[in-house]
Design a protein that fits this description.
Chain lengths: 217, 385
Amino acid sequence: MEVWHFITQNRQELMILFGQHAYIVSIAIVIAIFTGVPIGIWINFNKKAAEIVLYIAGIIMTVPSIALFGIMIPILSVFGHGIGSVPAIVALVLYAQLPIIRNTYAALKNVDKNIIDAGVGMGMTRSQVLLKVQLPMALSVIFAGVRVAVVMSIGIGAIAAYIGAGGLGHYIFMGINQTYDAMIKVGAICVAIMAIVVDYIFGIIENRLVSKGLRLS
Amino acid sequence: MITFERVTKIYPGSDEPAIDNVSFEVPEGEICVVIGPSGCGKTTLMRMINRLIPITSGIISIKGQNVAKMDVIELRRGIGYAIQQIGLFPHMTVYDNIATVPRLLKWDKKRIAARVDELLSLAGLEPDIFRFRYPRELSGGQAQRIGVVRALATDPPVMLMDEPFGAIDPINREVLQDEFLKIQAKVKKTIIFVTHDIHEAIKMGDKIALLEAGRLVQYDTPENLLVHPKNRFVKDFVGADRALKRLDLLKVKDAMMQNPVHCHMDDDAEVIAKHMKENQLTFLLVTDQNEKLKGYVNFYELKDHLGKVRDLVKPMTITVKPEQNLKEALSKMLSYDIGIVVAVDDDSRLKGVLNTRTLLSVVGDTYDERGGVWGKITQQGSISS
């Protein structure tokens, strides 16, 4: 009741924060996909690089998320972007790398050797094998990694408010400071809803893109 | 057509060659089965042809062209490649699977569509039903048929097949082998066929290359491999039942008695019975005017009958085709306990008769190394007493 009251009272502000949150997370995710997937593909051809990249991505994951956002401030202030959406996006991109890279790498590695052999034996070039055989077959596992990254980024995106990037985290932090229950709940519920809806949408996209031949019967 | 000259393969970090100085030639239009115990290098030998494995020394050439000097992608696109059922792309429909190489070669869509339908029909699969199925929606046998016709898609002169029927149960494997031989009789490809199954080798091969630890032990026709094994290893490998295996090789038409005695439906029973009595025949085959087999008559029923033969004809349901092998014929004889089996062609015209005696003599004659004849054993008991 209290929550509903809060929402109706602050509808406009809520819309703005929701928009900011969506903006930060979607930019971060787009960048993360367009960096993580190619890196995952590249390290497939280079075992040494694979070890190093996965190691670094693993380390980034272990940094507490709130600290990662904090670290961004001194580093990016060199370029005049210490606070605001830029450090938040950078932090989220870094965070989202591991699930995307790791799943892309593992998915490509796990494509049946016999099937790759069939492709090579039939006269496909290396890039044809990648595009026509490996990637389509790896797609659902890559998608699983992306979905994990998206849901995680929406959740962690709440911390962006802490370094002045706004978003739904704003209500959570302010609510904690003011011990204003309804405010915290509204922020948390909105983050959760956003995560669920976006994950659902990605599920639909995945269904469209992944070949019917690979679905479990 | 495909020539191996002193081909040697030594894997990096290994002292023993995987393939040791192998030379032989596969003539155009023949199936060469490469066989040997596991680890003998048979798959390595095959994969060096389309350069999936680099050669260490020696020359492999196709139609006189050294494969090492050809563009590797073009080389592979010009060779049909079929591996176990697992080699179908699971994310592609049957259509896309078959269209893979035609698309790599940039055929236009109409040509591809026509070719896919043609190949599906060749595989005995109705195009309208199977065209857009995924591999997981196929049975093992169907998937394997697709795998084989996919390799035929661009009508390449050379095909490499690595245990193409390995993942299929024995009954379906026989069916697929027969179908494939029928296709091969039409398309006449030069085929390297790797297997570890000696039965399959004998059945499929025009020639068999038997490898042991990377060395070519014997390269010969299946017939010669069975009758004249070069050494102990070959003898053991083809097995103690090699005489029986020859039954796989020989066709009914090689052993049957042609144009066997028979009568017609409209002959008088009395006349025929008399003839049978004179010739001591208990049974006689019956055909119609066009020599189509109608069945047989029994002397004891016929002898007192006043009328035509047709009144007493019993149908003969167990027949073989002249093109079937003797093993199938023998199996029919044994399972129905009738001592003979009748060969008819596709229009059920009477072609010949095979009995256990002729069957054994065909196998025995050529196999008994010292010769000699048992003759007809008609008496019982011991002679020496």
